[in-house]
Amino acid sequence: MHLRPFLAQLEREGKLVRIKKEVSTKYEIANIMNTLGEQPVIFDRVAGSKYPVFGGITSNRDIIAEAFGVKKEELLPLLVSALRHPKLPAVGTKAPCQEVVVKTPDLDDLPLLFHLPGDGGYYATATVSTVKDPQTGRNASYHRLMKRGKDRFTARLIKGRQTRTTYDKNTGDTEFAVCIGSSVPVMVAASLSPPSGVDEFSIANALDSMTMVKCVTKDLEVPAESEFVIEGRLTKEVGSEGPFLDLTETRDFERKEPVFVVDCITHRKDPMYQALIPGRLEHKNLMGMPKEPTIYDEVSKVATCKNVLITLGGGSWLHGIVQIEKRSPDDGKKAIEAAFIGHKSMKHVVVLDADVDIYSPTAVEWAIATRFQGDKDLVVKADQPGSSLDPSAKHEEGKKTLTSKVGVDATIPAGVDKSKYEVVRYKPVRLDDYLR
C-alpha cells in the first residue's frame, strides 16, 4: 500500500496518534515517539519548519503486515517470494515527488532531528538511498546522514556493503539519491540484503506495485511516491560522523566518513518528513526482519525450514531462532551452520522443532531446558567475523571484528521416544456449563 493511503487507514482505525502542539526537533520529537512506543504518529506543527513529521509505520510486525494486507505469520513467505521473484518497476516521466524542485537547497529547511544528548548532530535516518554500480546495477539501502552544513552531510557507509564498495572503486564522485518519506514496501525492500546485482526496488515492486521516476539532476531512479528526494554526490572528502545511538542501544563512536554534497531537493507540494528514531523498534525491525528470509533460504538448502525470527533481545541483529521439521539426526547442526551463512553478523542461534512457538521466549527457553544437552548439542565457533555493534567482541582498528559464535540445537534428539518430549496439554472446557 502507498504511504498516504496507509497513514489514512491507520488514522481511521485509531492506530495513529496526531500531535497538534508545536514540538521541537531537538530531543522533543524523538522522546515523544519513544514514549508512545513508536506508535504511528504525525506531528502537525514543528518549530522552525513548515513540514509535518511522521514516523512509526514499521514499529511492529502487525503494522508492517497490515501494510501488505497479510498476517504477521505470513510476512516471511511473502518476503522470500519477493526475493526470489523480483519485478522491475516501470519508470514514468512525472511523479508526485517532483512537484517542487529546489536547485539551491538549504538543509536548514528540513526538520532533521537531534535525537539524544551526546549525538554528533542533527540526523536524517529514514533514508532510503540509491546508487548505481557499473558492474552490479542499481542498489537501494539505508545510510544515516549527519548534517554538516546547509548543503552537505556526512554519510555512514559500512565497508563491505554495496554502496561503500561502489564508492571505493569510483575515482571521482558517486551519484547518490536519498528518499525520505517512503511506503512500507519500499522501506522493507531497501533493508533487505539480496545477492549482489538484485535490485531492491524490484523487490519492492514485487511486494506492492510501484513506479519510479528519473532524478532531476542525477542518472538515478527513485520511487515516484516519495515525499522528499535529496539528490547529490558522495565525494572523496571525508568529515566527522557520529557519535550516534546504534541498534544494540549502545552509542556508536565517531568516524571519518564521506561527505555527501546536496545538489537538488525535490518534493511533493505538501510533503511530510519521515523520522525514524535510532536504537528503537523501527530501527530494529528494519535491520533484523530482512535477515530472516536470507537465513530461511540458506537453511532450506540443508533442512526443512519452517520459520525464522531475529529477536529483539539480541538487538534485532545478534540473535536468531530457526524452526525446522527435523528429518535426519544432523539436521539441527546443519541448520546452525547454514543460519550463520544466511546472516554473517549473527552471534547466537537456537534451532527448534516445528511444535515450539518461535515467537514465545518462554517456549524457546523451555525447548532449551528440555531438549538440549551442552556436551552433545552445543556448537561453538571461535574467532569468527562478527558485528561491530557487539561491544563484547574483539575490535582492532583496521581489522574485521572477531567474535565467538554459538549454536544451540534444541531439537528432539534422533532415535528416541518422542512422546516424552511432547507437551501434555489440558483440554479447554466451556466454563458456562459449570458457572450457572
Structure explained in plain terms:
With 436 residues, the chain is of the alpha+beta class. It folds into 2 domains: 3-285, Electron Transport, Fmn-binding Protein, Chain A (Pnp Oxidase, Chain A); 290-414, UbiD C-terminal domain-like (3-Layer(aba) Sandwich). Helices cover 24% and strands 28% of the residues. It is built from 12 helices and 23 strands. The protein has helices spanning 3-12, 28-35, 61-68, 75-84, 162-169, 184-191, 200-207, 281-288, 291-300, 331-342, 361-371, 374-377, and strands spanning 17-19, 41-43, 53-55, 90-92, 100-102, 123-124, 127-133, 137-142, 145-149, 152-155, 174-180, 211-214, 221-223, 228-241, 244-245, 251-252, 255-267, 273-274, 304-310, 319-325, 348-353, 378-385, 402-409. Strands 5, 6, 7, 8, 9, 10, 11, 14 and 17 form a 9-stranded antiparallel beta sheet that branches. A hairpin with a 3-residue loop joins strand 7 (127-133) and strand 8 (137-142). Helix 4 crosses helix 7 and helix 9 (291-300) crosses helix 10 (331-342). The longest helix is centred in the C-terminal third of the chain and has 12 residues, at 331-342. The model has no long low-confidence stretch (mean pLDDT 95).
